[in-house]
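> example.struct
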């Protein structure tokens, strides 16, 4: 469980840093147009600040075995609706770029892994490991 949680922490921190340091490049790769100060601010807040917060939470859960279950549960609660919304967007919109497709593949893998951990190990073993 800790490997899964540390991986999430590193991925979210890496994404946050990448988006905060190179917002124009990352937003363009994702298909966002940063217009005006409000748009730029919102992008940095969500793709920087929120992602750093998630990274910190996943790291805290990874570092404490009694928090493993909560961390994996949060990941599953995030990834299931993300994957569903992503699938809906793929059906609804044309011209989906490669960065979005790769991101979707990673999200599906993390969702499946998280569900596997929850289902196969169970809440008692997750908190004890």
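> example.seq
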């Amino acid at each position: 469980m800790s490997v899964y949680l540390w991986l999430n922490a590193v991925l979210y921190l890496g994404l946050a840093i990448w988006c905060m340091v190179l917002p124009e490049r990352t937003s363009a790769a994702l298909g966002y147009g940063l217009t005006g100060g409000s748009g730029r601010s919102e992008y940095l807040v969500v793709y920087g600040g929120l992602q750093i917060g998630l990274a910190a939470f996943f790291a805290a859960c990874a570092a404490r075995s009694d928090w493993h279950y909560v961390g994996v549960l949060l990941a599953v609660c995030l990834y299931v609706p993300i994957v569903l919304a992503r699938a809906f967007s793929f059906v609804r919109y044309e011209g989906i770029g490669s960065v979005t497709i790769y991101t979707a593949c990673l999200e599906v893998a993390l969702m499946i892994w998280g569900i596997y951990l929850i289902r196969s190990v169970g809440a008692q073993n997750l908190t004890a490991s």
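> remarks
The radius of gyration is 16 Å.
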